[in-house]
Each structure stands twice: as C-alpha cells, then as structure tokens.
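URGENT: need a sanity check before tomorrow's submission.

F., can you look over the Potassium transporter record below? I want to be sure the sequence and structure line up before it goes out.
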Amino acid sequence: MAGRAGDRAPKARRIRLGNREVVTEGLELSFWADISHRCMTASWPAFIGGAALVFIVFNGFFALLYWFGDQPISNVPRGAYIDYLYFSIETLSTAGYGDMHPQSHYGHFIAAVELFTGIFSMSLMTGLIFARFSRPSARLLFADNPVISTHEGRQTLMIRLANERHNIIANATAQLWVFKSGVSKEGVPYRRFYDLPLIRSQSPALALSWTVFHVIDEASPLHGLDAAGLKAANVGLGLMVSGYDDVAAQTVHARKSYEHDQIRFGHRYVEILRVTEDGLRIDYSRFHETVEG
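Structure tokens as predicted:
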C-alpha cells in the first residue's frame, strides 16, 4: 500500500554488532525518545561535548530573556548581552556571586525559572555521570584469532582470554555461540545461532588467563567445515564471559565476536606461561601470537 503524500521514509541507519556492520531500514526512533540510552552509550568526549552544548544553549536562551526585559538585573552597564550571559551562568549553576541580582518582577520571574532549570539539569547530569562511572565492566583481553587444532587427540576450537586487572573474577562462566547462514527447505534464507558446548565452561577464580575449548565432533555445528565451508556459511563466533568482581562487588560481563576469516586452522597459541626461579611468569606481549601445529 502506498504511503500518504508527504510521508517521509525512515532513514537507513548503520550500526555495528561486534565486528559486523548492519544497515537497518524501516525503523525510525526519535532522538528524544531514547535520550537516556544515548547518554549512557555515548563516548566520554561526545557526552561531555553534548553536556557543554546544552549548558551553552540554556544560558544563551535565558540571557536573551533577560536582555529583552527593562533593566531586570542590577549593575549591568548599558544592558550588555554578555553581562546577562554571565549572570545567567551564575544563576543556572546556583553560584550567585551577588554583584548582579534581579531588581524587577520580570527579572525575579526569569531567575526563578532558571534556578529550577539549573537544579533539575544539575541533578540529572549528576545522576548520569554517576551511572556511567558506577557501571560495572570487566577488563578482559581476548585473543585476536580463534584457532582450530588438535587437542587431546581431537579437533578443537580454542579461544584464549585474560583478566587485564589481575583481580579475582569469581565463578566466571563462558558461553560460546556460532552463527551460520543457511537456506530452509522452502528456499528461505535464514541466519541461526547454535550453542557450542565447552570442555570447561566455568572457572572458580579468573585472575590470569583462560583458554576455552570446544571439541569439533559429529555433534558440533562446525563438524566438516574447513575455511571455505566457514566462508560459504558466513560463520561468526560470539563469546560471552561473566562473573563476580570481588573489588566492585558486582557481576561483570564481557563479550567478543569473530568472523570466519579470523579463525586460523592448524594453529595453536604460543605458550605464555612458564615457571622460573622467581615463580610463575606470564608474557602478555605474546598473548595474541599463534604457531602452526
């Protein structure tokens, strides 16, 4: 059915899901309808820049209202707009140095509205900053490439990860999925995910490094696939790790996704653990290295 005249088609949006770029069409979400999520997910430079822009716009608007009045503020020489802007900044931030103050009903009314706006906006900004700082996060380092090699006599998919903070993540749990494209019996293309069982999916205390193993046997969705088969099925991997951070006293999560061209067949990870006279040593400079074998 044709749309009504004048209707605008929603714009296409580019989003990133892990390492994959997705273009979405036919869905339009108002900027203000999800402003809280946008504030929480924006980068720190974008968040601070946006806050500064809102601060400038608010003060510029209220300074304009003062400027329209008939000398609403005392001690403003020649009614200069820049002085009203300074007074607006003092009022919105509740600083109130005292050399300038409202001297008319109009000035008091605008100042009262601005004070309410300042209190409300500062409370909102404090809450957002606290939420961004207090949001739990895990500093986990994931290997650049999954590897498929023989382990304990069986073909095995392996992914190495490490705790960059070197604190204790208790009851760490890992979950691994594979995403594959296919065609149904009706000829409809689809993309489906499968859970990949791990030899050991839990670690009582993740402090250093951990390698997760998935055996590629007859029951595995990866069984019989080589590099060309992975490409044909547009295979992707998703690894999720969660656990209890003893320092933050909160549950933390981390995830990593891989595309089929990042999987290295016939490779294994370089050993980074060794025992010396000084004790156990870990060489993280070789964390991402692999060798054939």
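My own read: The two ends are 60 Å apart (CA to CA). Residues 1-5 have pLDDT under 50 and may be disordered. If you see anything odd, call me.
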